[in-house]
Amino acid sequence: MVRQKATRVFNEAVDGLSDVADYLKLDPVPPVWRSLQGYSLERFKRDLLAGLMVAIVTIPQAVGFALITGLPVQAVLTTAVIGGMVCALFSTSRHLVFGPTNTLSILLAGALLTVAPVPLPPLQKALVIGLFIGAIQLAAGFFKLGNLTRFISRTVLVAYATAVGLIIATGQLGNLFGIGSAGRPVFVDSLRHAWNRLSVLDLNMATACIGMTSLLALILIKRLRPRWPEGLIVLGAAAAASLLVDFKALGVPLVRDIGQVLAQVPLLGEFPLNEAGMTVVPFIASAALAAAILGMLEAVSITQSIAARSGQKINPNQELIAMGAANLSVAAFGGIPGSASFVRSAVCYQTGGATQLAAILCSGLILVIVWLTAPLVNYIPVAALAATIIHIALRLINRSQISIVRRATRSDAIVFWATLAAGLTLNLDTAVYVGIGISLALFLKKASAPALVEYAFNEEGQLAEIETSQGRGNSAISIVHVEGELFFGAADLFQEQVRLLADDDDIKVVILRMKNARHLDATSVMSLLQLHDYLGKTGRHLLISGINPEVERVLRKSGAHKQIGTENIFPAEANLTMSTKRALLRASQLLQQLGAAPNAGVRIFYDRNRDNNAAVDGPSPVRDGDHDKPGDFQI
Length: 635
Prior knowledge:
Strand content: 5-15%
Shape: elongated
Number of helices: 27
Distance between the termini: 86 Å
């Protein structure tokens, strides 16, 4: 009886989860299960090799991230082990590898300094931050916000990665030369501190020699043997040297001096869900949100980039759920927040990883390697580790991408330099918001600035721009071409410019030719009605021609269609000029009612931006019927 009841409850729970997953358009079955269908020994060998290579890359990086954040190495390794395993279970990407990253490490270091006065150990503060990051990402995945990441400019990410690379590199100068730390992970402070100490040769020469030799070796190996794991080779050689030479007597710090690497399995830890833990929340909310956004951007960007080469189909919302679940699990096991790693994901793909099992095997191999090599890792000189971190950080600075965003458009250049400046002088989370805000503001300015140019028929019978006011005819009908996005940002400017063009007392009828106008909203509808009222009060008329079904639906649902008058609105037809012909016929009738000549002249206004856009973007976007001859409008 009990078994039957338990089975029924279980089945109901599964059905409920399936219903929720179906509503959210998510797969109720973990993607890894589908990837393992028809699994073979050959694929296992590929996954095992990829997992081993990723583990080899992960361990020295994890020790470096511990140095950046000032947190125990064990907490960073827990992120790679637990987070990597959980993320792989729920990720649709076969190659995504979760773990500690440069971006989150530097963000976390800054956030921990912000909450330094709070009476709570640094690791527990990191757990609270990780909990918030995971909750935000999980919610974003469930509410299908993954697609929103495409509205954040790639220029912001390029500038942010550049700032992170510079901050990490300058922040390790103290460990590289044995001159101590500047305190805050801020570019200007680190640079000033290094200059003040190095300019008077106040440094540890033994530490500086180890650091510079390691950095030079890393550069040479990467250039001469790019397939070799240069970080593992240099750190292994440095650790072996420390066993032969008494570096402690020379004042050279080792990894064991900043935190022992222990050969132990991560266990559930004590989470600070108490009053002290909650006091951290107001101070870390902004940093946690920025970290969650960056993590989402990294995950979607990395998975789509690799999927473009592997041919795999990716679900961005599922990736966010995988990231959120991984960060929540990491917080429960006492690890620091993590994210998708581009370097380790690329290694997984390049070494032939076949399924998500490669990342799961990587987690187990990390434990095995740490178990076997923990004593040796503890003897790595911090200067050699700093050289490895600097080498990795400088690779974040992608010169080809920087060149593209600086030269592509003026807006991209402004966004890049503003985000980079904010990242180097302010908190990194602030830099994210600055970059996103400026890029959106510049886009809205560009999209909401219609420019209308007066056109008339020339002697050849073609539409041509009027160069001077003397070229104007005495026209009673004005045709205004409207093209582009008529959303809230463009509504007022659109209305003002049309009113300015219609201020000529000779104009009796204004025809808005809207066949290429898109995305009307409430604001643009109200502006349209205000223009209609303005013209009506001055004894003139507004006609609309060429509207597409989407615009017509908005006008009808809002009631604007009825206010303007059905007889004054002419939907688009198969013949591109027919709606405008009908509008001109209606205008002729209205002019007769007003006592004007039925064959009054016609003035046409056209958007100058279209010609500018054509020069930049290539072939002219002008469609058939846009440059019409007078004969096309014969009534």
